[in-house]
Automatic annotation (TrEMBL):
CDD domains recorded: AdoMet_MTases
O-methyltransferase dimerisation domain mapped to chain residues: 22-97
UniProt entry tagged with the keyword Nucleotide-binding: no
Gene Ontology MF annotations: methyltransferase activity
Keyword Transferase: yes
InterPro entries assigned to the protein according to its UniProt record, in alphabetical order: COMT-like, COMT_C, COMT_dimerisation, SAM-dependent_MTases_sf, WH-like_DNA-bd_sf, WH_DNA-bd_sf
SUPFAM superfamilies given in the database record: S-adenosyl-L-methionine-dependent methyltransferases, Winged helix' DNA-binding domain
Gene3D superfamilies xrefs: 1.10.287.1350, Vaccinia Virus protein VP39, Winged helix-like DNA-binding domain superfamily/Winged helix DNA-binding domain
Protein name: Methyltransferase
Length: 381
């Protein structure tokens, strides 16, 4: 018996489509199909031309008949085309799983289908009941603490974040005048992909990447390849405790959505404490629409991913404004980055000391911020 089985009677014209619902139910299977293709290197084996399933199996070291079945499933998902029986080629979307593609998404496909990432999703209903992440209940510790115990997955995660950042790195330098600043501090900046793009475009600017030792593991290599080692430094630390002094622009990409409101205010308040009067904080995040927009369905899934794995959230313009004001900033300005990036720029200036927030009170001093464990950022990136 199939999952959707009828009696042959045509449904009424206004009846709901059960196939649409079942496509969503089978979404987990589709995701794991894509993840398996990325782990096995199927698109690298296919390359730009056509290859028979037996050739792909030989290149991947897989069983031929099972490989054919995987390739046909990928073709049904429109990542491959079967031009004649048993012969396949990649579609433009499928080529993004090739590690040699300039916009490869092979690492995100592997990371976001890994059991460490998806196991807590099985308890999504519990997260909705409680409003708390289920990852700590499943694994006995927080996401980033668990990631630190898995060096291979941690390296893959860093690569995934780098791949996901490339679209933003391609558009950000042309969308914001970094030349106004002397030193840009990329808070939670990981391997430095975004900061490298900024430094290449603005030769007068110096840069600092601030992250945990794990997060910074590939940063020096990124800057060396970009020829920027003389204008770059990596500073390890805990952004819940402090951020490096000396910057006049503090850049946070895909950091704020990882955390609940209290922790976000702590991070932003630490940036506010380090900023000179003329400085700015620049947040690069998705800004959720005030009402649901189905064309960006992935944003809402990212929001739930933050819930189950970290306890963070995606936020609206109003919610970002509240965070900034509670951290000691004036109401921020908002602008969208051009495609292919899906992010917005949220720029905030320090509010003069003694100026009340919209809520009518001065934020608590830095000493009241609770110290948290070191971390780095989770993107979908």
């Amino acid at each position: 018996m199939t999952a959707v089985e009828g009696d042959g009677t045509a449904p009424p014209a206004d009846a709901a489509d059960p196939l649409h619902l079942m496509r969503l139910v089978f979404g987990t299977m589709a995701a794991q199909t894509v993840g398996a293709a990325a782990r096995l290197g199927v698109m690298d084996a296919l390359g730009d031309g056509e290859r028979a399933a037996d050739e792909v199996a030989a290149a991947c070291g897989t069983q031929p008949r099972a490989t054919l079945r995987l390739l046909r499933a990928l073709a049904a998902l429109e990542l491959l085309v079967e031009s004649r029986p048993g012969v396949f080629s990649a579609t433009p979307a499928g080529r993004l799983l090739d590690t040699r593609h300039p916009r490869s998404h092979a690492s995100p496909a592997r990371v976001f289908t890994d059991p460490q990432m998806v196991r807590a999703w099985e308890d999504l209903a519990e997260s909705v009941r409680t409003g708390e992440p289920t990852f700590p209940q499943v694994f006995g510790k927080g996401f980033f603490e668990r990631l630190g115990e898995l060096p291979e997955l941690s390296a893959e995660f860093n690569a995934s974040m780098s791949e996901s950042t490339r679209a933003t790195a391609a558009t950000l330098p042309d969308s914001y005048d970094f030349g106004r600043y002397r030193t840009v501090v990329d808070v939670g900046g990981g391997d430095g992909t975004l900061l490298a793009a900024v430094l290449r475009a603005f030769p007068s600017v110096r840069g600092v990447v601030h992250d945990t030792p794990r997060g910074l593991a590939q940063a020096a290599g990124t800057m060396e390849r970009a020829g920027l080692t003389d204008r770059f430094s990596a500073v390890t630390g805990d952004f819940f405790a402090s951020v490096p002094e000396g910057g006049d622009l503090y850049l946070l990409k895909s950091v704020i959505h990882d955390w609940d409101d209290e922790r976000c205010v702590t991070i932003l308040r630490n940036c506010r404490q380090a900023l000179p009067a003329h400085g700015r904080v620049l947040i690069v995040e998705r800004v959720m629409p005030p009402v649901v927009d189905p064309t960006v369905a992935g944003w809402y899934l990212s929001d739930l991913n933050m819930l189950v794995n970290l306890g963070g959230r995606e936020r609206t313009r109003e919610e970002f404004t509240t965070l900034c004001e509670e951290a000691g900033f004036a109401a921020p300005s908002f602008s969208e980055l051009p495609a292919p990036s899906v992010f917005s720029l949220i720029e905030a200036a320090p509010r003069p000391t003694g100026t009340a927030t919209a809520a009518g009170h001065e934020p608590p001093p830095r000493s009241m911020a609770r110290r948290r464990a070191p971390t780095d950022d989770l993107d979908d990136r």
